[in-house]
Amino acid sequence: MSCIVRLVDTAYCGVINSFYLTLILEKGYIKNFEVFDPHRVGRITVELQGRVNDARALTYRQDIKAKDIEKYKTLKLPTHQWGYVVISTPDGILDHEEAVRRNVGGQVLGHFH
């Protein structure tokens, strides 16, 4: 029985990218990630699990209010059953469910499903 390990290297390592990947890891969409040389340009190696269909990081930060999060989610995610919108809030980087629960808005960083 052979084991196939799928790894992806990213060219840029930033604090926001690390928090974004931590959130994806907590939701179970990736197995693990490792940061190499975080104090310089560095890189991140991500071990995929096969659950990520699409992951988008927005190059522009779109402001969103707490009351508009559900509308944004229905526009960007393909279904109501899975997927998350990642938002940078004053409480930290949260997924859309936690942001609605805490009633905070912020800037949309991206989404994955």
Structure notes:
The longest helix is centred in the N-terminal third of the chain and has 12 residues. Strands 4-7-5-6 form a four-stranded antiparallel sheet, with helices on both faces. A three-stranded antiparallel sheet has the order 1-3-2, with helices on one face. It is built from three helices and seven strands. With 113 residues, it is α+β, with helices and mostly antiparallel strands. The two termini are 29 Å apart.
From the structure above, extract its key features.
113 residues, alpha+beta, 3 helices, 24% helix
Layout of helices and strands:
Blueprint: E1 7-10, H1 15-26, E2 30-36, E3 43-48, E4 55-64, H2 69-76, E5 84-89, E6 92-95, H3 96-102, E7 106-112
Antiparallel strand pairs: 1-3, 2-3, 4-7, 5-6, 5-7
Order of helices and strands: EHEEEHEEHE
By helix and strand content, what is the structural category? Answer: alpha+beta
Shape: globular
Number of E strands = 7
Record the strand order, biggest sheet. 4-7-5-6
Query: How much helicity do the residues have?
Result: 10-25%
Average of pLDDT? 82
The major β-sheet equals: 4 strands, antiparallel
Q: Can you count the helices?
A: 3
Q: Unreliable segments (pLDDT under 50, ≥5 consecutive)?
A: none
Note the gap between the termini.
Answer: 29 Å
Output the radius of gyration: 15 Å
β-sheet strand percentage: 35-45%
